[in-house]
Design a protein that fits this description.
heterodimer; A: mainly alpha; Sodium/glucose cotransporter; two-stranded antiparallel sheet; 73% helix; B: mainly alpha; 4 helices
């Protein structure tokens, strides 16, 4: 962050931004549907084929914040940041095996959200409300973090103040309002091409300038290069690494934005196909993670030109500083544009997903049961605006640290919907009140574990038979949740009368 | 359409989906620098390689099960 704005980089950046804004508004006419229907506005009419779903989910899951924060973690903490790689490896076999079922039942019964499904499957409004509220609350800080990603690159361009961020978000809000899910779907295509171009250039050009991968890894200190060995009597950081990867993988597709992306596919087959081709993004992410080590090798932190950026944004400034140092201005513009647009796509999809949840599972359920389809869609559009304004407010007026800590908690919270949503896809024998109790236990236990760590970390050390096991709090609290749900189901089912399950076995095929 | 043999092959195909979990579950196995590949420590290239293998396995399962379905 030097004194004056970088004119060339800023010009390229602004050009890309204007381009995607135009696309965002044009998207309303793409595969035209009646945008006053919620499934048209909020699910793109369920019309996206394998390729568009690939761009949409890729743009949705591999967010700008990921691209900034994962290398920042590598830069600051080293090997542990690479957990993002096994995480994304574990996600896709799960998606392959599980999510076609959710797609089918959603198509058969007209469900737009995971809470819709839970409502239908278990016949419990209370459980559906819990699922919907969890989804919304877990997603809001995630949207705020997208703004962090954008803020960092805007600062990298040398632009000062909050105004550029506010303008970007108002524009985003406007085209999401008019075009719905079609806007991020179309923009995701541009975003992904920019990201792939940036990654490709970065992993070829930067190592060439720095003298090869050997030199890059040699510049990383030994304590960062590998995970520390486990001390005696403990499973140590390898256990933390693995539980983080596994817990994150289980949580990812429970997020509303991931479910929205999945349900917008036009055919069931698009989902297994995407499970096979989405790992292309994982590979990009793995390479992006290594940018953190390249930033170490390039000595960006000791360079006075970037001191101010690091002072303000911490290690999140590592990647912008690396690009500024290694790339010519015009390519800095492209790379930063990729990150900023990479923030717009998930922010749009997340706000749409939250709006779908609010409208379907809170508004219509509790306030306006006889809402017409047009009214329902109008409420969703307004909800998406409110959600985005909330995120903007968050970033401008509260310390960034809150958003990061809340997002960490969000992972712990969203995973508590797994028994209802995923196990619910396979069995109706869980009792809704047992699921609700399990959800509450998991939520409380997970939050308490994170609180005991002052919300700085999510790896809580369990002591099992004299062995210390550092475990991702989302995973351990999920196990508690499942145990409570299962045991209470046995008890309650012994008393309970027959419940209503509006879905039939053939809906899932 | 789905005889016993068909069904068994279908289930076996699904087992391929577990391989990435097996390969990566025991972190101490790959938490080491050697053998390095073109200067990249084992820890990094092993996991990057499994992204590719994982994708191929899912593709194979898809082909197997698709053939079964048609």
């Amino acid at each position: 962050m030097t004194g004056a704005p970088d004119v060339v980089a800023t010009a390229v950046f602004v050009f890309l931004f204007v381009l995607v804004t135009a696309l965002g508004f044009v998207a309303a006419r793409w595969r035209k549907g009646d945008l006053s229907q919620l499934s048209e506005w909020g699910l793109g009419g369920r019309k996206f084929g394998t390729a568009v779903t690939w761009f949409l989910l890729g743009g949705d899951l591999y967010t700008a914040y990921t691209f900034v924060a994962v290398p920042a973690l590598m830069f600051g903490a080293g090997a542990v940041g690479f957990f993002a790689v096994p995480y994304t490896i574990f996600v896709y076999p799960l998606v392959y095996a599980i999510f076609p079922r959710l797609w089918s039942v959603a198509r058969a019964r007209g469900y737009v959200t995971a809470a819709d499904f839970v409502r239908g499957r278990f016949g419990s409004g209370a459980l559906a409300l819990a699922i919907a509220v969890t989804g919304i609350i877990a997603t809001m800080p995630y949207i705020a973090l997208q703004l962090v990603g954008m803020e960092v690159v805007i600062a990298g361009l040398g632009l000062k103040g909050e105004l550029p961020l506010i303008i970007a978000f108002i524009v985003l809000a406007a085209y999401t309002y008019t075009s719905g899910l079609r806007a991020p779907a179309l923009i995701a295509i541009v975003k992904d091409m920019l990201i792939y171009a940036t990654v490709l250039v970065a992993v070829i050009a930067i190592p060439m300038e720095l003298g090869g991968f050997g030199k890059i890894f040699a510049s990383v200190s030994a304590d960062k290069l590998l995970l520390p060995q486990a001390p005696a009597g403990s499973l140590g950081s390898p256990a933390a690494y693995m539980t983080l990867a596994l817990g994150s993988a289980l949580a990812l597709f429970l997020y509303p934005h991931a479910i929205t992306g999945t349900l917008s596919a036009s055919t069931r087959a698009a989902i297994p196909r995407n499970a096979a081709i989405l790992p292309a993004y994982s590979l990009a992410l793995g390479l992006i993670a290594l940018l953190g080590f390249m930033a170490i090798a390039a000595n960006v932190k000791s360079d006075p030109a970037y001191a101010q950026g690091f002072a303000q944004y911490g290690n999140n400034y590592a990647v912008p500083a690396l690009f500024l140092k290694m790339f010519p201005s015009w390519f800095v513009g492209i790379a930063f544009g990729a990150v900023a647009i990479g923030a717009l796509v998930p922010a749009a999809i997340m706000s749409i997903a939250c709006a779908n949840l609010f409208t379907r599972n809170i508004w219509r359920e509790y306030f306006d049961p006889h809402a017409s389809a047009g009214r329902e869609c109008q409420v969703a559009k307004i909800a998406s605006l409110v959600v985005k304004l909330g995120a903007l407010f968050f970033i401008i007026f509260l310390p960034q640290q809150y958003a990061i800590q809340l997002q960490l908690l969000g992972g712990i919270w969203i995973i508590q919907t797994l028994p209802s949503v995923i196990i619910g896809l396979y069995t109706r024998r869980l009792h809704p009140y047992a699921l609700l109790a399990g959800w509450a236990c998991g939520l409380i236990a997970g939050t308490a574990m994170a609180a005991s760590l002052d919300f700085k970390s999510s790896t809580y050390v369990l002591h099992l038979f004299g062995l210390a096991v550092p475990c991702y709090a989302a995973l351990s609290s999920l196990l508690l949740n499942i145990a409570v749900s299962a045991v209470l189901s046995v008890v309650l089912n012994a008393f309970g009368a027959a419940r209503q399950d509006e879905t039939a076995a053939e809906d899932y095929a | 359409m789905s005889g016993r043999g068909e069904k068994r092959r279908f289930r076996l195909a699904y087992l391929l989906l577990f391989l990435p979990f097996l390969a990566l579950a025991w972190v101490p196995y790959y938490n080491r620098a050697e053998p390095s590949l073109a200067g990249v420590p084992f820890f990094y290239w092993y996991q990057l390689l499994w992204i590719v293998i994982g994708a191929i396995l899912i593709g194979l399962v898809y082909l197997f099960t698709e053939r079964r379905a048609s």
